[in-house]
Amino acid sequence: MQLTGTGIGRRTITGPAVRMPDPLPAPASTPSTLGAEAELGRATDALAGVSAELAERADRVSGAAQGVLLAQSQMANDPALRTEVQQLLDGGATAESAVFTAFAAYRDMLLGLGGYLAERATDLDDISQRVRARLQGLPAPGVPDPGHPFVLVATDLAPADTALLDLAQVLGLVTSEGGPTSHTAILAREQSLPALVGVSGAEGITDGQTLIVDAAAGTVVVDPTDAEVAAAQDRISALDEAASAPITPGALADGTLVPLLANLGNPSGVARAVELGAEGVGLFRTEFLFLDADRAPTVAEQQEQYRAVLAGFPGQKVVVRLLDAGADKPLAFLNDAHEENPALGVRGLRALRTHESILRDQLTALAAADAETDADLWVMAPMVATVEETEYITALAHELGLRTAGVMVEVPSAALLADHVLAATDFASIGTNDLTQYTLAADRVLGSVAQLQDPWHPAVLQLVARVGAAGRAHGKPVGVCGEAAADPLLAVVLVGLGATSLSMSPAALADVRAELALHTPTQAQALAALALQASGAAEAQAAVRAAITHTHHEGTDA
Question: H or E segment at 499?
Answer without folding.
Answer: none
